[in-house]
Design a protein that fits this description.
alpha+beta; Bacillus phage protein; two-stranded antiparallel ribbon; 3 helices
């Protein structure tokens, strides 16, 4: 989960908010927004932090900038680190809702 960020994290959580209807080979995707990126957009991620009673902590003592923030939904015990507060919160939320291992479409995986 520590390597997940950006579109991958947004997809993992967003898939819970999107409905796909399969009608005889024709797929209709019904989405709440055309671009859903709660891990990078405070107007989308901020309400999730409030809804899930998330805590956001800046870890100034961490030498690696990729782990400067820790966050997660309240009362779950699932906290993750990340380079930004929203990324760390979304990682924790994904882990709390979907577990440690989640399958993501190959097209969304950012090879480093």
């Amino acid at each position: 989960m520590a390597q997940v960020e950006g579109i991958e994290t947004s997809w993992r959580y967003g898939r819970e908010l999107v409905k796909v209807h399969d009608r005889g080979g024709i797929k209709l995707v019904e989405s709440i927004r055309s671009i859903y990126s709660p891990s990078i957009d405070w107007s989308q991620g901020g309400p999730l932090v409030d809804k899930h009673h998330g805590g956001l902590h800046y870890e100034a003592h961490m030498a690696d900038a990729n782990f400067r923030y820790s966050s997660g939904p309240g009362r779950t015990g699932f906290w993750c680190y990340g380079p930004t507060a929203l990324i760390s919160f979304c990682r924790g939320l994904v882990k709390a809702k979907l577990g440690d291992i989640v399958q993501v479409p190959k097209e969304l995986i950012n090879e480093h």
